[in-house]
Write the structure tokens for this entry.
Amino acid sequence: MATLTRPRRGKVIAGVCAALANRFGISPFLVRFLFVASILLPGPQVLLYLILWIVFPKADH
């Protein structure tokens, strides 16, 4: 499994969804879709996204 680093290419906003998709070996589109769908539910999704943006380092290459 890949590490949790935000890619420099293939990201849409900050690369958090792409990092999660790479780590778990699933489609980045699926992770992005699930995140956007989760926005409809109550909860701290956007806050979690911002925290992960800060915590996940950028990929070196």
Observations:
- The chain has one domain: 1-61.
- The two ends are 17 Å apart (CA to CA).
